Sequence to fold (80 residues):
Amino acid sequence: MATIASLRGSAHGMTCDKCGGSLIAPEWAEYFSEEQLVLNLWSCMSCGNRFETEAFVPVNSKSKIDSDVLERFLPTLLVA
Fold:
């Protein structure tokens, strides 16, 4: 399985490189803080193709989600 740059985005998430189907979310994701790298494993429900993408997160990036909004929707996931 090859790892490719995260460039094949669609309006919903990612596009399958085999059949062109829209993929909404990765099956699995892992963040590596030292490298500021996110690896995503995608699986296409239409054709069964599986592939990985990688994306680099800038060191100075900030979340677009306000912490108050996040706390209202996901209170059990936040650790004080």
Observations:
- DSSP finds one helix and six strands in the chain.
- The two ends are 39 Å apart (CA to CA).
- The helical segments are 67-73.
- Residues 2-10 have pLDDT under 50 and may be disordered.
